[in-house]
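FW: tagging you since you asked about this chain on Friday. Here's the raw sequence from the shared folder, copied in full. Didn't touch anything.
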Amino acid sequence: MTPPELSVVVPVFNERDNIAPLVGEIVAALRGRIAFEIVYVDDHSRDDSLAVLESLKPTVPELRVLHHVVQSGQSTAVRNGVKAARGAWIATLDGDGQNDPADIPKLLAARDAAPAEVKLFAGWRVDRKDSGSKRWASRWANRIRARMLRDDTPDTGCGIKLFERAVFLDLPYFDHMHRYLPALVQRAGWKTVSVPVAHRPRTAGVSKYNNLGRALVGIRDLRGVAWLIARSRRTAVEER
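HL: got it, structure written out here
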């Protein structure tokens, strides 16, 4: 079987009402444009997200479903999805429906126009549709992160990204690593680009994070990523 050019990886936890609409939008955005697959990773949801995913497989041949037997978190779900993916390039989306799959072709166009050393195209939510407190917390976190990591990325937490699979799998793995992908890719010797994308309000389900909990974990992770960058002697390698 010929592998697809693109794998769309979507981690989900208790998102049963957002699954079918998002799968439909991914298909509408990509079918006929590029050979693709959709890899959903159910992080041991307590609702019937897994059953909803299984029910879609007969009518969506591009859909593959992975299931964590123990809840393991978003970063682990993304990494397991990327490991299972067959495409050389990966697009990620949050499972809550706030990222617009129609932006994936925009990221692909940016990739096609960019130099080969750019390996990650990060979505940039220029018009956030979250609550005021969540937007404030995100701006605060992004400013601290940018000052410490100097990754030149205005919105590292945006769920929609496009990156090369091999580059991602060469990155150091740790919980919450998905929030630091631009800095980690740059640490590996590659370049990253931020691309303005749409952002939508959540229409079903509830957020899985609170601002205080995310901030406390973020401070610890930020210190760790800064240490990794300071101790790095890595560089990108090309075969000529």
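FW: The first strand starts at residue 6 and ends at 12.
HL: agreed, and The first helix runs from residue 16 to 30.
FW: great, closing this out.
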